[in-house]
Each structure stands twice: as structure tokens, then as C-alpha cells.
Amino acid sequence: MADKNYIKALRRAKAKKTYYTSIFAFVPIGIMLFIVNVGLIETNIPWSLFPIGIMSAILVVQKILLYKKPTKTVFAKDYLQYQTEKELRMIEFEDDMDELEAEKLQLTHLELQPLGRQDNELV
How many domains in the chain? Predict the structure, then answer.
């Protein structure tokens, strides 16, 4: 299980690195295109907004995919094993919750006894 977690962590780290690399590439390019459009080429059409918008959309998609939880489809080869492990975790969770409920019920049925205190005890 540790190897699977390491692989998942490595994939997320690579995705984060790709996202931040894209930011560092897209921001200066967008600024440069805007300056060229506004300052050097005087046109009535703000053509630089089109590539800036496309680059922004790419960054948004990358950010969404960065935190998207990967799911297995029914057609995946290891779907049955994945779904079995998922159901097993749910059953173990339910069992743990049942145990906690039983302990809670036992604790609520206990009678609280006042502590006996002698007059000469320091508080």
C-alpha cells in the first residue's frame, strides 16, 4: 500500500510542478502580448485577449485536474479489485462506527457516583 501511496504522491507532485511551470510561462507571455497589442501596434481590436484567454482556460483546467479525485470506470481492468477495496474500507468504517456507538451506549448507562471528599483534603 505504501508503494501505491508513493506513486499517487509522485503523480500529484508532477502535476503541481506542471501547473506552476505553466503559470511561470504563461504570465510573462501574456504580459508581453498585451504590451505589444496596446503599446506597439495600435489597433481597435484587442487581439491579445484571445491568446491570454486561451492560456487562462488552460491554467483553470490544469488547476481543476490537479485536485480532481481519480475514479475508476467500469471498463478498467482493475475495477473489480478497486471496488472491492473501496467496499472493504466502507465495511471497516461501519464496523468502527458500530463499536463507537456501542461504547457510547455503555458510557451513557453508567451511573455517575459523586466523589467522596473529606473535609481535611486540600482542593
Answer: 2
